[in-house]
Structure formats: structure tokens, C-alpha cells
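seq as requested:
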Amino acid sequence: MQAKPGRAAGAVLAGALFLATGVIAFDVLRGAGPPAQALATDALLLGALVAVAVIAVRARRAAAAAADLLRRSEARHRSILDGSGEAIIIIDDQATICTFNGTAERMFGYAAGDIVGSSLERLMTDGARGAHAAYLAANGVTAMVEAVKLRTTHKGVRKTGEVFTFELTMTEWRDGRRRMFTGAMRDVTERERAAQALLANQARYAELYENSPELLFIYAVGSGGGFLLESMNRAAEEYVGYTRSAIVGRTPDQLALPESARPFKRALLACLDTRASLKDEMPLRTDRGVFSLPVTLSPMEDASGAITRILASSRAQPSALEVRAA
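C-alpha cells:
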């Protein structure tokens, strides 16, 4: 156990006094010079020993304080690293892992003691290891860091062999003359799965929308409470006799006479305000006249819950259309 600086100081001073007393006694016994001269010499020796002891104690205290400060700093940094929500991995210019925080342990399944000192390639997929080794040999770690300074997505391998997706950002710094690199990683496996599920749902929705026997029109909510026809499905296109490109992007006024479109715009606003479905008639102007199509208006929410579109659907048969004079 390390002695405390106060005890060390007492021990050094006691040792100095003991040594000086021994010198004085030795001088008296051997009769070295006049007693006053011997005492003066021994006093000087005692003072020198005490001064040396004080300097030694102060140096020891300074070293102990520096060591304590270093321990506290390391503990603080370790606490910050382990408390980070991102996996933090620090590597040197040979891509050797030097630091592996708690989140990295949980992400990859390795204890820091098992992974520190290993190559970064240990955490990569088989296909990525060869490419990484070749890139590292040709360009060095700095080039690799430059390539991923922006947050990029990569594949990693857990201790169990499971491959997962993570986002990575790397930065370069120096530890004295040594170049070091810090990588911050975030597991985005669940986000990627959700995105893939969303794409699959969107594909299914698009297929159902396009192939539905119902007449489907989607109006986008524009600025100032206006509405624009955003899309219509194949059945609607065939039924009204318009190609999509001919009418997509038009307002209700542009799709019919203003006086016939006014009630429909009020119905769209009511659907937007009440966030509830309602029934109304949608006018569509063609070269044969204005068709009044019975529709059900339904609000469509985005991911944030805001209503950004309104679906107009109809099961009307051709005989149900009322043709008015244009």
C-alpha cells in the first residue's frame, strides 16, 4: 500500500534527525575539532538534510497530486465514453483498436478487454475485410477517415456472427506524435427494417391503388388551403376519359366550371377541418360536358399526423353519372 505524503514527510524528517544525531555523536566520540566547530558543521549538515527531505516530500506530493488528477481525468473520460449513446471506438494509424466503450461492448458483444489490441477488421464482414485491408494498404487510415467524415452506413458483425447495419462518423486527432482516430457508431438495424417494411407497404399500397376497381383520385393540400389533383388510378383514368398527365396538377376550378367546383371545394375544406370522411359530388369537365361523380372524401395523414392529402373514391357506374351542359 502506498504511503501518504504526510507520513512520508515524517519518516524522511525523522530519518534526517536520526542521521544528524548520529553524525554529531560520532564527531564527539572521535574528538573531531573543537566542539563548537563540530556542532556548527553538524547543524549545517542537519539543515541540508532537512532541506533535501522537504524538497523530496514536496516532489512526492506533486507527483501524487498529478497521478490523482490523471486518475480522475481518466475516470471522467471513461464515464463520458461509457455513458455515450453511440458506440465509441478509438484506433491508431495501424487500425488497431485502442478504446472500446460500453455501448460498443453491447453493440458488438465483445468485452473491451477481449477486443482492445485487435484489428478493426475483426468487427467487419468477411467481404469487407479484404476490401478494407487493400484500401488501408493503398491509402492509409487517414484516407479512410476522410472517406467517412460524413455519416455513412456500413455492415458490422457481432460476436455471435449476426450481421447488422450501423452509421459511422470518424474524426482524426493526435496523442503526442501518434495519430489517432475516433469512430462514433449507431446501430440502425431497426430503422433499416422499418424503412424496408415501409417500402414494402408502399409498394403494396401502390399496387392496390392502381389495380382497384374503384375510381380513386388523390388531392394534395396546397398552400393557403388550396387543392391540386395529385394522382388517379387506372380505373379513374379509363372512366373519365382523361390521361393522367392531362389533368394531374390541376385545381378543382380547372377540372370543372367554377360555379360547379365551388361546392366541391367546400367539401374538401370540410374534410380537412373535421378530419372525417364525408360524401359529396366531384365535378369533372370534359368535351362532352361536366360529369358529377358521387364520391367519398377521406383524409390522409402523413407520418407526423398532419393531413396532407384527401382521397376521393367512387363506386359509381356509368349510368350513375349525370351529364350536364357545359
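Residues 302 and 308 are 7 Å apart (CA to CA).
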